[in-house]
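INTERNAL AUDIT FORM
Audit reference: QA-55
Scope: verify that the stored structure record matches its stored sequence.
Auditor: D.O.
Record contents follow.
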Amino acid sequence: MARKKGKERSAEAAEGADARLPAAKRPARRAASHAVSRYLSADERRAEGKSIRERVPRESQAGWKPGENRRDPVEILVESNEGRIPTLVPIRFGRMMQSPFAFYRGSAAIMAADLATTPSSGLIVQACGDAHLMNFGGFATPERAIVFDINDLDETLPAPWEWDLKRLAASLVIAGQHIQLPDSDCARAAADAAREYRKRMADYAAMRALDVWYDRIDLERFIASRAQLEGGSEEDIRRQVEQRVEAARAKSTPEILFPKLVEHAGDLPRIKDDPPLIYHPSKEDAPGQESAFAGALARYRASLPEHVRVPFDRFHFRDLAVKVVGVGSVGTRCSIGLFMAGDDDPLFLQVKEARPSVLEPYAAARVHATNGERVVAGQRLMQSASDLFLGWTTGEDGRHYYIRQLRDVKLSPVIEDIDIDRLRALGRLCAWALARAHARSGDAARIAGYMGSGGTMDDAICEFAVEYADQNRRDYRAFIRAIREGRVPAQQVD
């Protein structure tokens, strides 16, 4: 059977009266009627999911072959620089050129275009949009508990669930290659993640609706799961994890952050410049400085829940500086804001520019007024707990932003320090977190019905991941060639 283009397949597989519309024109499937009607049982919805296989066989999800009209990946990357700070673009590409794994982290736009050409079940969830394994990790909830979850949702948008799972699985293969594991081990890590996602989704399909929303991967479950998956001592893993948590807590305390990031200009605290990664923007680059960003902060405050405005109002704005972060975000307007409630009582907020999702050309159109609100809404929908000060605003330049605390006990994987057992365990934990996030907005029973109880879908996702890792390496080589030829600028900064 000849394959059709991604948008056509997705539309045919989608449910509802809007299924024949182009993907970008479909309304987000979020609204539900509460009129008295007969609900479908989990078994009935699971059967509906299973029936989708007739239109989109699970085997069709396997493998990857670029189409004849596939866009030049370097062209997509250059296009994604539009609107970024020109002087920071070389740093973005300098970080991406370090390895195929670093390139993959910064090239979500390339993969989004590729995923749109693959078969889709048409089952829509609130997708992460950039679900590589470095976008999962631990962080503190407002109650100060530590949870493991997705921690970067800049690209979030309603989209097919397969897209996130395929990006996660491919990232495991690429990470395995990065630490020079055998190809067979890389494939096993991807297959393990797909299997874990399938099994967890089946579990969520059998749970009560609110139990899915209450579910979270807390520190105890994380430690127990790692011990089971890695085959190690739970006591040893607990000791390792607690040491990392304590170190992360220490780095997040005002006693550490304040002297590291702040100096005094007379009696006034001011964020230290450390160019080119931390610097104060000009008035042209950051309009609103004359009023201490009063308008943008007022709009941010209005986005906060009423009870959060009370502690926020205790703090007063003191300074703002650009701070380069991550890989894919480099060049966007990312800053840190310093607020003070007293001489030794600082609050650091991270202000991140929210640009259109890389998924938007291929999936549901944004339904929120701004991209900042899109990110915040998606984050609250997908995460089991979100930052206390998570909110959004619009700058005086009309750009969209979202805001959260800086370094709130954030724990990220250190890929270079892991072996095959830990990579497989990490992949399965990420898949669990992804399944939980998808089950909150999507129909777990239909997704579970489509995936089934056997290994067909696991094998298909694994095969895709392995072959897409090869594509990523080819794209990386083309990227490096473009740098050497002077077609794109790159600057490596420690």
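Auditor finding: record pair retrieved intact. Confidence is low (pLDDT under 50) at residues 1-31.
Action required: none
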